[in-house]
Amino acid sequence: MATKAIFITGGGSGIGQAVAIRFAREGWRVGLADVNASGLRETAAMLPAGMVDTYTMDVRDRDAWKANLDDFTGKSGGRLDVLFNNAGIGTGGPIAQMSFEDMDRVVSINLGGVLNGAKIGHAYLAKTPGSCLLNTASASAIYGTSGLVVYSATKFGVRALTEGLDGEWYGDGIKVRDLIPGFIDTPLLQGPIEGSNQNIREVVTGAGLELTSAADVAEAAWRAVHGDDVHTYVGKTAFRLKFAAKWLPKRIRQQMRRGIAAPQ
């Protein structure tokens, strides 16, 4: 049987790193892409020698997408079983206080980068029977998140893209799935909240909300790729928000007015 192959953006840390380890454990060849070259080296060192390729890449760079997927599939025997559109940034803060530069950067990476991966990746996925485009959305794609509205808007966009392409690519034999995690215990949560000396992790734990490990997300990614659900929810926060958005809309609205955010 031919060795299966997965290409992961944001593979230098967090969810991308955990997913790389999980799929490599099953004998898959792994392509890692990230803007963080040292993070790429760190992740690659955790994987079997000869089964990993690394690419320093910004997901906004369409030429880099094409060149790196050409290179990776050349080494994988033409296979691209999974393209994991995972790279993203967590810049937040009230929209009235965000700079236009920060706003544009979040949109161009979190949504534009995913769109680039989908459009460019289609040709490679279509050559591999049973392939899958897997996107990282967020619990912020369940209900608009106060204090993180730009981030939330991009994740709603990722969710919409997933649902739309699930239908659009059905005839091409490509599955399209996404992960909808709540708070994941990664370095992203250590970033300071704008206008505060607290980081997101402290706010989350102080509010009595739980953190989910990146390894749990990696297990969910494995299930998502091999299952039939378009959306795979990960962690108690994601399931609670899913329930509240459907059955307790007034309560979740009040929660957002208090400014309790629920980012990935």
TrEMBL record:
InterPro entries (UniProt xref): KR_dom, NAD(P)-bd_dom_sf, SDR_fam
Claim: Thylakoid is one of the keywords in the record: no
All copies of domain Ketoreductase, residue ranges: 4-177
Pfam families tied to this protein: adh_short
SMART domains named among the record's database cross-references: PKS_KR
GO molecular function terms listed in the Swiss-Prot or TrEMBL record: oxidoreductase activity
Gene3D superfamilies reported in the protein's UniProt record: NAD(P)-binding Rossmann-like Domain (3.40.50.720)
Keywords annotated in UniProt: Oxidoreductase
Family listed: Belongs to the short-chain dehydrogenases/reductases (SDR) family.
PANTHER family (alphabetical): OXIDOREDUCTASE SADH-RELATED, RETINOL DEHYDROGENASE-RELATED
Protein name listed in UniProt: SDR family oxidoreductase
Species, as recorded: Sphingomonas panacisoli
